[in-house]
Write a structure and sequence with these properties.
The protein has a single domain (about 1-160), classed as Beta Barrel (Lipocalin), CATH 2.40.128. The protein is globular, with a radius of gyration of 18 Å. Helices cover about 15% and strands about 50% of the residues. The chain has one helix spanning about 1-25, and strands at about 35-40, 45, 55-60, 65-70, 80-85, 90-95, 100-105, 110-120, 120-130, 135-145, 150-160.
């Protein structure tokens, strides 16, 4: 009987681990987890200016995705932004982002996702994330409005960090 309990316990443990991994991986685009560094030479920012540097880290947090962004803007102090959100169509609070206070995530495919950033209920920007076939490049196309009301259209290319 004791051996049967051990086997059942081991099977349940594996099943829980698989269920956890599936819940995050079926939500977030495949291969998104990890740290990504902005490749300024491959990126375009309109109207600009480009940030001096930017790093994004994606980690699973329960059934949600934790996103941490560290950016050194062209002007001003470094910023640290964080959000933990699910791919369930709900709005989640963003901290540290002067241009947004909420985010909503949407899965498009196994390699694509969308983030909608709002401030005071108004859509400020829409990001479409696309992972390369080899999982080493993340491209984020952003359309939105700058703080002074100008249209914004950026294509930021990130390299996966070891």
């Amino acid at each position: 009987m004791r051996e049967l309990r051990k086997v059942v316990g081991a099977v349940l443990g594996v099943a829980c681990a698989v269920a956890f991994a599936s819940s995050v991986s079926t939500q977030a685009p495949t291969g998104l987890m990890g740290t990504w560094k902005l490749n300024l030479t491959k990126s375009t920012f309109s109207p600009g200016p480009a940030p001096k540097s930017m790093t994004i880290t994606y980690t699973p947090e329960g059934e949600s995705l934790k996103i941490v962004v560290d950016v050194v803007p062209a002007e001003g102090s470094p910023q640290h932004r964080e959000v933990t959100a699910g791919y369930d169509g709900k709005d989640y609070p963003v901290t540290g982002d002067p241009a947004a206070d909420m985010i909503r995530l949407k899965r498009i495919s196994s390699t694509e996702g969308e983030s909608i950033f709002t401030k005071g209920g108004k859509v400020m920007e829409v990001n479409k994330r696309t992972l390369s076939a080899d999982g080493q490049t993340l491209t984020i196309a952003t359309e939105g409005t700058t703080a002074d009301g100008k249209p914004r259209k950026d294509v930021a290319v990130y390299d996966k960090q070891p």
